[in-house]
């Protein structure tokens, strides 16, 4: 799968997100866009993206949804990410980017773009 774009589909919500994750289990996908889909995450941890573990996902856009807690292992199952857009999180573990240190090239947090991620220390 090249790219799936559900951006700004405010009726998508968490239930459809879970269904989508189940259908992507063990499937390759390059880009997943879920910006502004009305998804509310409680604890965003490794279990949320577990089905994408073998996907070789390169781009993930999950900004403009609500994330209560961004856990340290949140992106450990998508360690191939090169671009990540995340926003609207209330709390986060300072280590949440560590699993992506080798691959991440661009990070967008609440509309702030950070380049040269490999040169940035997260501790």
TrEMBL record:
Name used for this protein in its record: Uncharacterized protein
Domain of life, per lineage: Eukaryota
InterPro entries: LRR_dom_sf (IPR032675)
Gene3D superfamilies according to UniProt: Ribonuclease Inhibitor
């Amino acid at each position: 799968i090249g790219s799936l774009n559900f951006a700004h589909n405010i009726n998508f919500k968490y239930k459809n997100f879970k269904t989508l994750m189940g259908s992507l289990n063990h499937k390759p996908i390059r880009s997943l866009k879920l910006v502004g889909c009305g998804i509310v995450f409680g604890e965003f941890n490794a279990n949320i993206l577990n089905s994408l573990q073998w996907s070789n996902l390169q781009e993930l856009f999950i900004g403009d949804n609500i994330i209560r807690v961004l856990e340290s292992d949140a992106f450990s199952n998508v360690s191939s990410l090169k671009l990540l857009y995340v926003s609207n999180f209330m709390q986060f573990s300072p280590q949440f980017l560590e699993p992506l240190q080798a691959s991440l090239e661009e990070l967008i947090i609440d509309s702030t773009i950070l380049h040269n991620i490999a040169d940035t220390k997260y501790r």
